[in-house]
Amino acid sequence: MAAPDELIGKTVATKYLVEQMIGEGGMGKVYKAIQLALDKPVVLKVLRQALLSDERTVKRFQREAKAASRLNHPNSISVLDFGQAEDGAMYIAMEYVQGKDLHHILSREWPLPEARVIRLVSQVLSALADAHSAGVIHRDLKPENIMVEQRRGEADFVKVLDFGIAKIVDGSIDDDGPALTRAGFVCGTPEYMSPEQARGAQLDHRSDLYAVGVIVYQLMCGMLPFDSDSAVGFATKHLTEVPLTPTKRRPDARVSPAMERLIMKALSKNPDDRPQTAEQFRAELLAIEKERRASVGTARRPAATSAGGLAPVPRKVTPIDQQETRVNPPSSPWASNETTVKASSPIAGPVPENAASPTTSPDRDTTPGAGASSIIFKVATVLLVTLALGLAGLYGWSVMQKPKEVYVPPPNAPLTGTGQAYEYDPPREKRRPGDATREAGEGDDAWHRGNMDVALSAYLNAWQADPQPELALKIGELYFQKGMSAEARAWWTRYRKDAPNAKAQLYIDQMLEQ
Fold this sequence. Notes:
single chain; Serine Threonine Protein Phosphatase 5, Tetratricopeptide repeat; 11% strand; Transferase(Phosphotransferase), domain 1; 3 domains; three-stranded antiparallel beta sheet; Phosphorylase Kinase, domain 1; six-stranded antiparallel beta sheet; alpha+beta
């Protein structure tokens, strides 16, 4: 049984009575407390005692208070107080939000209607617009940092939390800002990192908008844009791969075409191709909701009928009629993402007096002319199927007759080319894939910790054990981050040679142009 927390039941700085611990992170613990002067619940973040001697961590903690205190927006968490307790412990007091975080809502309530996603995310963007105008970049947006509370008469009210690694870009209140993050050290959550953040490059507010794009993608289809089992794997995919559209990644997700286009725009590798401001992103979201409401209104409006209107001609039930027969109006935002079958009649014209009623048995076709149409349809179907089979057979025969291309190396060709590491190519029987996997894992861990030299050494060891294309990709990226462009080009060229059809080719082409 865990020992009770030493702060619970105590008063911090003679102001805050600690009631319970509600969270814990690398820098400290988070408590629910009562502000004694107002008898009001607050959130108290207390820095770990062991970190008080770490000047870098103390400054980062102070920066969080400064960054959050700059913000005065209904959708941003409010900082009430900041100081140091009698025992030297540093704390930040913030408003207490009674609600659930967006991760909890996503895991318990998915699928979410598009209208609700727009309502939630538009508030996030409104908070970001205020933060960006104050020169603050969040850098760690994710569902866990977005609280949602149900207020009286106002459902889904959003509060954006945790500016713990926020960056203040104008330097007016944090002269030591650049020193708080080591060169090449990556801050944030890999699943939501922008490509430039994963690379450790200079960030601006558009990095936050990429993270919002990942969140909207996840809210709409219940899945992240990429899957990986490691932090470096996520970062590499954000750097090099173009994600599948939400409807291709999850065909059963209800995502309108306009929403899908906006999501993919926000996930552009190049910041210039994303929405350029939080206000612009929010305006495009609200335009989608306005279009949706207009289309719903159009769909519900009763259709005009003429005095001489005729009932549709009944038709024989065919296998296709057993499928879903919902018909979406042409203006519906779901039109391109749902499989629909129109139940319209294949025969036009007035209904003869002796036509069968809708209650006629489907085993008999009493509609004049229906038999002839049915025969013609069947004959045409047989002809089309026969033609398709013939073309497929002809194609298969041509492929079988084409001689296979077999690479034959020149006599006495050296296994390692010019002796350069990026040209290393041992025979299969001399490769050690197990050792390569172990070394690559150590490299991933080192990269995530920001130790590029150790990561590079581990990747090179893995390459010597089993030269795989993804290792060449990572080695090239590390050389690029170290400013060694010639080495980066050599390794990326090897990657292009070994993986000519990989998704990272577009990224490599762009980097080689630089």
